[in-house]
Design a protein that fits this description.
mainly alpha
């Protein structure tokens, strides 16, 4: 199987050269980092969809505070992205 994979990829590699001893972290730390980066992830996804919300507005909306002067549909999209994440 490995020979077929190497042939299909067109290259091989030496696993001995890969780093060992990759740092391990707790589930709590991983969840904290994810939660901390969530507004940026939501904002990035919203921008890709053409949503005009700014990053600070996304942060504000995710804190449960409405943002004036924006379409309800744009607000719902940001909320839905946050809930989906």
């Amino acid at each position: 199987m490995n020979e077929r994979l190497e042939e299909a990829l067109g290259f091989t590699w030496d696993r001995a050269g890969a780093k060992s001893g990759i740092a391990e972290h707790s589930v709590e730390r991983a969840a904290w980092r994810y939660q901390r980066s969530l507004p940026e992830y939501v904002w990035d996804a919203a921008v890709l969809e053409g949503n005009p919300f700014t990053f600070p507005e996304v942060q504000t909306l995710m804190e449960g505070i409405t943002v004036g002067g924006r379409k309800v549909s744009d607000e719902r999209q940001v909320i839905n992205l946050a809930e989906a994440a």
